[in-house]
Design goal:
single chain; alpha/beta; 5-stranded mixed beta sheet; 10 strands; 35% helix; 18% strand; globular; binds adenosine-5'-diphosphate; binds zinc ion
Amino acid sequence: MEGHMKLGALEAGGTKMVCAIGDEKGNILEQISIPTETPEITIPKLLSFYEEKEIEALGIGCFGPIDVNRKSDTYGYITTTPKLAWQNYNIAGAFKEALDVPVGFDTDVNGSALGEYTWGIARGLNSCVYMTVGTGVGIGIISEGRLVHGMLHPEGGHMLLSRSREDTYQGFCPFHENCLEGLAAGPAIEGRWGKKAVELAGEQKVWELEAEYIAQALVNLTCILSPERIILGGGVMHQLQLFPMIRSRFRQLLNGYLKTKELEDLDTFIVPQSLDDKQGIMGALKLGMMELERNT
Ligand code: ADP
Ligand code: ZN
């Protein structure tokens, strides 16, 4: 069923920008995608998509690190990103000024968590974790019904893991030898095995190691955050054979320490994204709606 509101959504990624118009029910009415170049080139293109669409609010799920602290002078900025052209760029401010509507702003992965929480497989829960395994690894968190921030925002992709003994790949994170992203994101699979992840679909060893690292991360997240459900998305998670491997290794690593009804059935605790890879853009829509509500 179609809603009556017109809302803008932007999933701002390091390689592409997905722009959409949608409604308060999560329907996406129109969507385009453009490559991420410099702000000077890209922002005007994005603005021309939203202008004259009469949106009531815009939500942005953004690559980071970003400033999500409303009390900060640089709230709404992309901060220390390795993408130099976007460093210290006031992305939320640019849209607010040009479009003159409320602009909701959060990390891309908090956006995806919110999409699943509002319209997807985490609906009705109070807490969930969303993890993307793609070009990088990112983690979005909802706890007691709220998106989790902090001094900055969670950067769960850089949690440190125990390296598997037979793994000689050095990791691709310039900051950490043993972080989740450096060992398990798409570029790590490609760097370790010399082929694109999708071309390795039939290689059991590849996915066993991948499942090992993801399972370690999920045990850490479970012990720290106690989520009711963990949702996995991103390009690498299209390898659905990973799910049973991750669940089985997760059970081994947790080793019976926690006993909850959620953990009895790992098929419903560790699940794939449920919104056809639209969780990010739908979550951005909801970020816009929430900002509109704050302002009224
Ligand atoms: P991004 O993280 O840039 O938003 P994706 O989530 O699509 O984009 O992640 C891209 C990464 O996922 C690449 O490293 C790519 O090799 C990997 N990838 C994409 N599709 C698949 C697939 N079907 N199977 C395994 N890996 C994939
Ligand atoms: Zn790292």
